[in-house]
Structures are given as structure tokens and as C-alpha cells.
Amino acid sequence: MTTQSASAPAASTQPAPPAEAWRGIAAEDIEEVSGKLTTLLRRRSRRLLQDLLRPYKVLSTSILLLVIVANLAALAGPWLVGVGIDRIPELLKSHQAGPLTVVIVAFAASVIVQAVATRYYVWGIGRLGGKVVFELRRRLFVHFLRLPVSFHERYTSGRVISRQVSDIDSISDLFDEGLAALGSASFSLILVGTGMILLDWRLALVVMTGFGPLIWLSAWFRRESAVAYRQTRDTIAKVIVQFVETFGGIKAVQAFRRERRNEDIFGELNEAYTTATRRSMQLLAIFFPGVTLVGNLAIGAVLLYGGYLVIHHEMQLGVLVTFLLYLQRFFDPLIDLSQFYSSFQAAGAALEKISGVLDEPPQVAEPIEPAGLTEAAGGRTVRFDSVSFAYRSAVVLPDLNLTIPAGQTVAIVGATGAGKTTMARLIARLYDPVQGSVRLDGVDLRELSDRTLRREVILITQENFLFSGSIADNIALGKPDATRTEIMAAAAAIGADDFISALPKGYDDEVGKHGSRLSAGQRQLISFARAFIAAPAVLVLDEATSLLDIPSERLVQRALQTILAGRTAVIIAHRLSTVAIADRVLVVRGGRIVEDGPPSQLMAGDGEYSSLHESWQQSLA
Ligand SMILES: Nc1ncnc2c1ncn2[C@@H]1O[C@H](COP(=O)(O)OP(=O)(O)O)[C@@H](O)[C@H]1O
Ligand SMILES: [Mg+2]
Questions:
Q1: Of 522, 465, 532, 25, whose CA–CA distance to 234 is shortest?
Q2: Ligand nearest to the CA of 389
Q3: Separation of 384 CA from ligand 2 center, angstroms?
Q4: Which of 67, 98, 353, 369 has its CA 20 to 30 A from that of 117?
Q5: Which residue's CA is minimally distant from atom 3 of ligand 1?
Q6: Using CA positions, which residue lies closest to atom 4 of ligand 1?
Q7: Which band of pLDDT confidence, cut at 50, 70 and 90, is reported for residue 39?
Q8: Is there a shared CATH topology between the 45-359 domain and the 382-463+537-620 domain?
Q9: Is 151 in the pocket of ligand 1 (CB under 6 A)?
Q10: What is the average pLDDT across 377-393?
Q11: Which tens digit of pLDDT belongs to each residue from 196-255?
């Protein structure tokens, strides 16, 4: 129940909590649902695994062969011991140790072969694992990068981190420890079983009777640990999500004195995880001794019955010794198999989640044959062609038709929630329209390559994300091959030169995490410089100057006029001074354009814009 209360606050901050599905659901339900999905899901994981292993056919085959050789050699050892023991009585009579030397040499050879083969297959598996995990991590990262903003809105960064770190880790763990043990255990189970039947079927039968309880025990353990395991994964995922959310928003947490609250939530989640882990350990604590007990009982039974057979000269002593030695090798793998069952399961579940992400289509997909754009001087025409758009279900833009001719500067004003930002995002193709199209010089944005799109359209928002690195690096993002002179010219044009030069290391100053060492206004100036140097055909500013003080805004305003010359611009602004430089103003309400015209004309009318203008004037006075 602790988990129930703990998940409530998480749900309020994330619209679609990932763990919703397991809240209050009984283990049986989970098993039933997972059973239904299993066939479909496993196929996806298997496809991914096959794909990952394909380049390493030779290596995988060699590993398999080495595992078989190592196990055969391991099987030869006990058999040779038996053979040797059976020779002893006859050698006692003849006082000749010669024939025994052959057995001993063969034994030594089998031990060496086993050691060498094991060394190489363990090494091979490690190598294979390293390559597969490397490739998987790379693919995942690249794929996450390509997934659209809409995916990342619902897939929290905590889950992204879970995939990249803990899921990859469990697959890596499987290769590091699980797989070698698993492969070897399966083979030795089969080989030793066959060997025992060939040696003496009656004794083998005695061993088999121990199998009933073992199978039951293993089935119980697997079932229970599957449930317990899922719980540990779900709870650790929540711990990570909470962790990431708290420290991603550490400023808000401290500003609102939410430390105690987050501490409490984290405490509960942490406890839920610990409880889940304890359950897994309890299961192991029952299972291991159980298997050992059955194994030892089997040894006793074999000794009893085998001894009886030997005494009655129905079996040679060497065979009994071989048998007893085999027996150890028979039950050990069973423990190994079950022990690595959870690590196997972990890797399976991880692979499943990863393949799920990799199957996620890059929604804003690149066209296979991108359309070209002709050279443009003086910006490009932006057109909304009967565009309707909804984030999930609620329609934000019902039916938008709008043409912005090349070179025009358009200001969009309207109340909060009117849909201005949404329009900006559609122009930058962060989302695709549900219906209709957004066009650049008549070409649907969906037909353009990412490269072209990013070159032609730049969106600047308030969230001026800076990457760790120097200021110069961050400005050069807009044009990777920019020279230092160009970078400085861009900063100067935007009026950022003064504050940058005043920094301890000037343009080489590190901006810190997310630009934390700069003020919001300074970050904004840098993002302007970044756009300036990129020189896109279409520039979209979404309340981009709202964080600047009046003098800085004046500076940027002047710079904007330089930047905007010769390109199409869409400016979403709250301030009159910004709107005033526009050729045309659009007033948006409820996702529709309700006024459209040059500022002077709208000002003269009696619509929304003129009243807005009036209140602006008053606020200035
Ligand atoms: N990422 C999103 N997911 C779901 N709904 C959103 C998202 N962004 C905005 N909305 C909704 O779309 C509507 C328009 O928002 P927006 O375009 O940001 O308006 P504006 O920029 O004019 O304030 C609002 O009702 C808002 O709640
Ligand atoms: Mg907005």
C-alpha cells in the first residue's frame, strides 16, 4: 500500500505515469496479461537479438563448440577415475603401475582440455557481450535522439535513463556472468544425464526420482521470482524517476521548500524497492537449500542402492564412483540454471523494453527521398494549409489557413493558451499536423530532410538550452564551421559582445550545466547569436525576448531588425515594442486567427489588438 500513496504525487506531475498499469494489480493479473503479450513481445526481442548477433556468427559458433568440448572433457574426468579404480585390484596382483599411467595421463589431458576450452569460451562470451552491449547502447542513444518531442513528453527522462543504464546493465551482466554459466549448465545437464543412463540405467532411474520434487520446486521458484522480479524492476524504475525529477527540478524543489515532501516520497519508493528485493532474496533462501537437499538425498540413495549392487557383484566399484562424481555435476547446473534465471529474466525484460523503444517509429520521420528547395534569397513563404492539430485529444488548432509571404515579419499575439506556441512548433516541425500541411515555399515540411529543415527554420524559445562547453561552442552550434571572427561578429551584432568579453575567460568561458552560470537574459542573447550565425530563411521567436530587461531588449530589437532583414520571421511577443517592428499582426484566439493586418490598421480598429495596444500604452505611462 505504500506504493499506492507514493505514486499519487508522481501521477500529478506526469500525465501518463508509466507504472500506472501495475498499481493495485494482483500478481495473477500481471501474469495473465504478460502471458498474452509474451508471444508478440518475445518475437520482437528475438529479432533484435538475432540482428545484434548476426555479425558475430563465427564467434558465437566457436563459443558453442568450446562449451561442448569443455563439458565433454569434464565428463571424461569422473569416468577415467572410475576406470582407474576398477584397474586397481588387478594391478595389485601384478604389481605393475604401467596401465594406470595411461589413465592418469588421459585424466590430466581431460583436465587441461577442460581448462583451456573454458578459458576461451568465457573470454569469447565476454568479447561477444562487449560488442553486443556496445552496439545496443549506441543504437538506443541514437534512436532516443531521433524520437520526436511528443515521445519524450510522455516518456520521462527517468525512463530514458533506466533504459540507458539499468537495462543495458542487466544485459551486460548476463553476458558477464550469466551466459557462460547458463550455456555450460544446460550442456552438462544433458551430457551428464546421458552419461548416467549409459553407465547404469538402474542407478540413473534412482536419480530421476529426485527429479519430481526438483521440477516442482523449480516451477514454484520461477513463478514466484517472476512476480518478485517484476516488482523490483517497477519499484527501482520509480526510484530513478523520482530521483531524476527531484534533481532535474532542484531549483523549484528548494524554492518551494519541497525537500521534505520529496524526501518522503523518495523514502516510500525506496522502501517499496527494498521490500521487493527482500522478497526475491527470501525466495532464493528457500530454493537453494531445497535443491541441495534433494541433491544430497539423491546421493544417499545412489550410495545405498549402488553399494548394494556392488556388494552383489552386479556393478563395478568404479562405476559407482563415477556416478557419485557425476551426480555432483548434475545438481550443480540445476542450481546455476535457477540462479541465473533471474539474471536471464532481467536481461529478457530489459531487452524487451529496449526493443520496444527501438521499434518506436521516429514519428516525425524523415522522408526516404527528401524534396529539394531552390535557392532562396529573402526568406521563404510559410503556409498553413487547412491545418488542424491536437496534442492528444483536445483540438488546439481547429482549421488554420495562413500564408506568410517570403521576407515578411509577422507578430502573433493572443492570450495564454491561444495556440501561439503550437503554431511556432508546427513551423519548426516539432510536431506534424493531424490534418493539412505546413509548407515552406510550397513544399510540405514532411518532405524535407532534417538537415534542410534545420538549416531553413530556426525556432528560439524562452528555454534557451545551452550545452556544456564554452560560450563560443554554444554560439557555433548554429554554424559548426564558424570561425572565431564570425562568432564574435554574431555576438556583437546581437549586443552580447559586452557581457561575454567581461567574463573571466571571455568566449572560452564554460557555461556550466544548462548554462547555469549565466542569467536567463544572457542565455537568451547567446541563443540569438546562435540563430544569427545560422542565418536561417525562417526565424520563429516564441516569446524569445520576454526574459530581457528593457535596455537589453532595445539592443536586441535593433539587432533583430538586422537579423530579420531578408528573411521570413514569426514573432510571438507580449511586448508592444517587439510587435511594433512587425509588418503584420495576427491576433489568435482559441486556435483561430481573429484579426490580421498591419499594426497601424489594427490599432485604428476596435478589435482585440487596439485594446491590447491601449493597455500597453497605459503600462508605459
Ligand atoms: N505538449 C503539450 N501537450 C498537451 N497539450 C499541450 C501541450 N502544449 C500545449 N498544450 C495545450 O495546447 C493549448 C495551446 O497551447 P500553446 O500553443 O502553448 O498556447 P500559447 O503559446 O498561445 O500560450 C493549451 O490549451 C495547452 O494546454
Ligand atoms: Mg506559448
A1: 25
A2: 1
A3: 18
A4: 98
A5: 391
A6: 391
A7: low
A8: no
A9: no
A10: 89
A11: 888 888 888 888 888 788 888 888 888 888 788 878 878 887 888 888 888 888 888 888
Residue nearest to atom 13 of ligand 1 (CA): 417
Atom of ligand 1 nearest to the CA of 419: 17
Q: Is the CB of 393 under 6 A from ligand 1?
A: no
Q: What is the mean pLDDT of the chain?
A: 83
| Ligand 1 binding pocket includes 391 (Cβ within 6 Å) | yes
Is 619 close to ligand 1, i.e. is its CB under 6 Å away? no
Distance 500 CA to ligand 2 centre (A): 29
What was the pLDDT predicted at 337?
A: 74
CATH domain 45-359 topology: ABC transporter transmembrane region fold (1.20.1560)
Give me Rg for the CA atoms of the chain.
Answer: 35
DSSP alpha helices (H): ranges in 249-316?
A: 250-255, 259-311
Ligand 1 proximity of 618 Cβ (cutoff 6 Å): no
Closest atom of ligand 1 relative to the 542 alpha carbon? 21
Ligand 1 atom closest to residue 422's alpha carbon, by position in its atom list: 17
**Cα–Cα distance, 355 to 207 (Å, whole number):** 42
Mean pLDDT of all residues in 261-278: 91
How many whole angstroms from 431 Cα to the centroid of ligand 2? 15
CB neighbours (10 Å) of residue 226? 18
Residue 418 in contact with ligand 1 by CB distance below 6 A: yes
Q: Which residues surround ligand 2, an ion (CB under 5 A)?
A: 421
Hey, where are the domains in the chain? 45-359, 382-463+537-620
Task: Dihedral sign for Cα 580, 586, 589, 591, please.
Answer: negative
Q: What digits encode the pLDDT tens for the residues 359-374?
A: 887 765 677 777 777 7
308, pLDDT greater than 90: yes
Residue range 535-551: mean pLDDT, rounded: 84
Residues composing the chain: 621
Output the CA 398–ligand 1 centroid distance in Å. 13
Q: Is residue 400 predicted with pLDDT exceeding 80? A: yes
The answer, yes or no, to whether any atom of ligand 1 lies below 6 A from the CB of 420, is: yes
For residues 594-599, give the mean pLDDT: 90
Taking the C-alpha atoms of residue 373 and residue 455, their distance in angstroms, rounded to an integer, is 11
Beta-strand runs (E) in 41-182 = none
Q: What pLDDT score was predicted for residue 584?
A: 93
Cell of 45: 526481442
Q: Once rounded to an integer, what is the mean pLDDT over residues 520-528?
A: 83
Which CATH entry fits the domain spanning 382-463+537-620: 3.40.109.40, 3.90.1300.10, 3.40.50.300, 1.50.10.20? 3.40.50.300
Q: Which atom of ligand 1 is nearest to the CA of 572?
A: 21
Ligand 1 neighbour 591 (Cβ under 6 A): no
Does residue 417's CB lie within 6 angstroms of at least one atom of ligand 1? Answer: yes
Atom of ligand 1 nearest to the CA of 416: 23
* For residue 483, pLDDT beyond 60: yes
* pLDDT attached to residue 35: 54
The model's pTM is: 0.67
Backbone angles phi, psi at 605, to 5 degrees: -75, -165
CB 148 within 8 A of CB 362: yes
In angstroms, the Cα distances linking 359 to 43, 47, 169, 352, 569 are: 12, 11, 20, 10, 37
State residue 19's pLDDT score: 36
d(CA 429, CA 438): 8
